[in-house]
Please model this.
Amino acid sequence: MGITLEPLQNGGRVLEYLDNTPNVGMFRALDLLNREVLVITSPEVIREVLQTNAYDFRKVANVQNYMKVLLGDGLVTVDGQEHKQQRKALNPAFSAKHVQQLYPLFWSKTREMISYVQKDLESTEGQQGTVVDVTSWVNRAALDIIGIAALGIDFNTLANPTNELSRAYQVIFEPNSTSTVIFLLSTLVTTWAVKLLPLKKAREIRAGSAYVKRYIKRIMTRRVQDGNDEKAVRKDILSVASQYGKFSTDDLVNQARTLLVAGHETTATGVQWALYTLTRPENLHVQQRLRDEIHKQLPRLDSDQEVSAQILAKNLPYLDAVCKECLRINGPSPFSKRTAVRDTVLNGIAIRKGTSFVIPNWAINKSKRLWGESAREFDPERWLHGDDALNGGADALAFQTFSTGVRGCIGKGFALAEFKIMLAALVGSFDITRATDEREVKIEWGIIARIYDGLKVNLKPVRGW
Ligand code: HEM
Model:
């Protein structure tokens, strides 16, 4: 018997079924428009679909086509052999060794963000604490970081909030009901929804994407010419990738568009969710304990001392646990979708070519079957005492925030480091509370699960750090 879930990307709804429906590692459900899909519930089936036989399960064509309008043919949107080649070329730039070299960048941009926020607070209400929309700050810091890390270019959107690039991204990704309709129409019916719809929002998305493409094309064209002239030795992600694979200027533009989006929207949304979690009244003690560890172990933001990967890995176990728990309980990427490209067998069940799958990352991360009775509670302790190889859960694949396998997040190490540093600087610098009384927030369920209308918090500077 199928179950109708409206819509299937709503991780909260899927969770109800995940734990309570008897199943064989997957169950049938009816997605919007009554399309049948199999929702995967067990690590064993995830392992087969995303790891062991990953190339037998492609990403869904309509979602890919929608993403291509925004990103072009980069790592996120290509498939098969082309994906293998691109991934092979990009992998070295995401190695632990390369990411370690980026810690000073994460730290300095985050310090810059905090100093602007502090100035903003001083100019409004002195030291008393002021309501701030963190969404914009965190988004711009993450955009500046990925600009330097991926292209070697500082977009300076932190210093310049009206920067056209950051405004274009804001328009493209701003959660509202029309963008949800465009996304659903595009991914469920036809990509032409975003290409042709005469809606104001669809026009804005098209104009924003075209602007980003032109802007990056200008940069990459200049850069290819400079690189040829100067034979410059660059260490940014695209330069490293160019040593391992062949990329035309257009390929580099698409890869840059891909990395800029994949590398800033997700992390920034993750930080917002973390602040949402840490400002819930029952979690304020976690915020304080975290702040104590940060003050003890990390240099003050106004000192010139840098933060290394070693310090973060060894001296701040609570920060590590809080970050992972925040990313578990509210991961930015609520689901992944796949289609079987051939007839196959999963867990003893015959699967026909063309069968659609949903891997409900958000729900798997909170499943009681995988995380025990406390699955839905925010409890960083589970990461301090558990077997680290198991990611704090019953199986290493119970933590699906970054997905897994050949199409899992290539930027996982990058994201975790950047996320930790941003959260540490924010919690170390400010006592953070909710600006509104609402306990729950409205969620926009798309490829990224966003807090509708952003997160407003009250920031009160903490003295002595
Ligand atoms: C908290 C932050 C992040 C989260 C939660 C996240 C999550 C994910 C997930 C779940 C996927 C797989 C999507 C799917 O299978 O449908 C993915 C893929 C990807 N991510 Fe991330 N990501 C984050 C940050 C980053 C960063 C910082 C970068 C780059 C610097 C990045 C680059 C990518 C790319 C390029 C892919 C496509 C990989 C492929 O298809 O081979 N991500 N990410």
